[in-house]
Specification:
Layout (H helix, E strand, L loop, with lengths): L2 E4 L3 H4 L3 E10 L9 E11 L5 E10 L10 H7 L13 H18 L4 E6 L2 H15 L6 E8 H8 L5 H7 L12 H21 L8 E4 L3
Parallel strand pairs: 2-5, 5-6
Antiparallel strand pairs: 1-7, 2-3, 3-4
Helix pairs in contact: 5-7
């Protein structure tokens, strides 16, 4: 059944989906066997004129789950030492519990019906988050089981760039390569990029200014 809402509301802009920007740092490419080492989440809000900005942020260093594989090449790339006690790492359960709680509150506050992951090369981050959620057996996972908004694809369309750093620079967003491959930094830049891509489409006249729209729950 279709439901009508004001256009300048997050629930209307994305057909009832609540976008949450996610980035993970891992010890490999296999979500089922390789450790999740870091995760950050940034929620998105919309003002009464229909412009997107970043909202709330959570960030966790994560302990490798029991039996997790740590690929040396991945650790050299992201420069994470899983055994460093100064990381202040928490379990996957603790990290996802807090993220899911924040996201479920955002869904309720914005009257959306489900969260959707926004990420750069989103299949990777989605896969690791879903694998961790399965391992922790957390109930009420707020994220769509397969749909995502991929800023790599969106940037390729809008900016002609698919690498996060190059897409940000092309969009006029400052990007510091020395801080890259930190989940927090990459998530914040990806959130800024996603908001700019959506807002740019609105500035170009690609988003309606009529007072109502509708969507179907899926």
């Amino acid at each position: 059944m279709a439901e009508k809402y004001e256009v300048n509301a997050l629930r209307a802009r994305f057909r009832g989906f609540y976008p949450v920007v996610i980035d993970v740092e891992t010890a490999g490419f296999n979500a089922g066997t390789d450790a999740l080492l870091e995760i950050a989440a940034v929620t998105i809000k919309m003002d009464d004129k229909g412009w997107l900005t970043a909202d709330k942020t959570l960030h966790f260093h994560v302990e490798p789950f029991p039996g997790a594989i740590l690929q040396p090449e991945a650790l050299m790339f992201n420069r994470i030492d899983p055994d460093n006690p100064l990381r202040g790492a928490v379990t996957e359960h603790e990290a996802l519990y807090e993220i899911f709680k924040m996201v479920r509150k955002g869904i309720k506050d914005q009257e959306c019906h489900r969260a959707i992951i926004v990420a750069h090369n989103a299949a990777f981050d989605h896969g690791f988050l879903m694998a961790a959620a399965s391992r922790t057996r957390l109930k009420r996972n707020p994220f769509h089981p397969f749909a995502t908004f991929d800023t790599a694809a969106l940037s390729g369309l809008v900016l002609g760039q698919t690498v996060l750093a190059k897409a940000c620079i092309t969009a006029g967003i400052t990007f510091n390569n020395s801080e890259a491959h930190s989940a927090l930094y990459d998530t914040e830049r990806t959130a800024e990029l996603f908001c700019e891509l959506v807002n740019r489409w609105k500035r170009l006249g690609g988003w309606t200014d009529i007072s109502t729209t509708c969507f179907h729950k899926v």
